[in-house]
Give the backbone structure.
Amino acid sequence: MSATRVFVDPAALRKGEVHITDPTAVHHLVRVLRVRPGDEIVAVVPGDGEYPAVVTRVLEDAVKARAGERRVPQVEPRVEVHLYQALPKADRMELVIQKATEIGVHRVIPVRTLRTVVDIPAGRQARRLARWRSIAREAARQSGRLAIPAVEAPLPLQEALATAPGLRLMAAVGEGSLRLSEALPADASCVSLFIGPEGGFSEAERRMAVDLEAKLVSLGPRVLRTETAGLVALTLVLGLLGDL
């Protein structure tokens, strides 16, 4: 059985020891896993590496461990993929964030489009965003990643297209769409994927995307649900670039 992984801040590492005080992490270790002195864990510092550690003390509000040598396994994609996902119905955004994190997404940005039917009330936006970020963090921990994908607040499509980094690709069905392999340079290092809502992007949105230097691409001959399309596109991009 592999050692439990836990994300920690750089400040948690002190002279060869790990002092875990984050309430969520402590609860998981103490209340859920019931770790004891002598148990092995892996402390992960996002953007730095991971440290195998042996628990030395368990308190109500903290876990202390003796840290080993830093390791940097090659698990993070070379390519940064930013997933601009039109807000789906119900809790499907949670599924997209969880699975995209496991696959290797760099950042997830929910997008409001002309045909988006989901409206998150202003009073619930902060709570919903916190929930999404918690899902990304847990998915990154479980999948052995060294980075936690950023999850941003929803943006209107025009603003998202205007500010998206790198190569901009919009998944669109119909004439004028390129095969993904045709639109994706072999040396791409940053890709922004735009996935539409149920019903797809409107013709006006497609024209706007082209005006803002995005390429229209096809994900194949079959019609995919919006939450499926984002995960398929992410997988194809990383696979075509040899980074899956």
